[in-house]
Amino acid sequence: PKNNVKMLKVLASSNAESGKKQIVYKIEIPKIEGSFTGCGDLFTACLLGFMHLFENDFKEAVSYAVSCVFKVIERTSLCGDDLRNNCELRLIECRDVFIQPQNIFEAQVLNLNLD
Questions:
Q1: Which residue out of 41, 81, 82, 115 is catalytically annotated?
Q2: How many angstroms separate the CA atoms of 98 and 72, rounded?
Q3: Residue 29 DSSP symbol
């Protein structure tokens, strides 16, 4: 890790088409210390929206979803006031993350033998 930054590994898998081999993706993101309420709900909403936007391209959708959630958590963590303990995400303040999303973490295919 760069500059002793702790990294988290996000794993996601897909086998949406019947008869196709399961594909597992990995995304590494810097760890942001704290406890933030609503991350799972936000990730699910983002993933659903990006699956529609990218016409069911799971790799692209999960990359964008993770990137959006990371940016919201990052900005929320910078709000100060010792808000990192069960902090509500600052969704309104981060609306530009959803209006003009950026893919900052690219999903990589993991070569796993899952058969």
A1: 41
A2: 10
A3: E
Stated pTM of the model? 0.86
- State how far the alpha carbon of 28 is from the alpha carbons of 17, 70, 93, 105, 106, in Å: 26, 11, 25, 7, 9
> Count of CB atoms within 10 A of residue 76's CB?
23
Q: Are 48 and 64 in contact, with CB atoms under 8 Å apart?
A: no
Residues 24-42 have pLDDT tens digits of 999 999 999 888 889 999 9
Catalytic site includes residue 115: no
Per DSSP (E only), the strands in 15-80 are: 23-30, 36-37
Does the pLDDT at position 115 exceed 80?
no
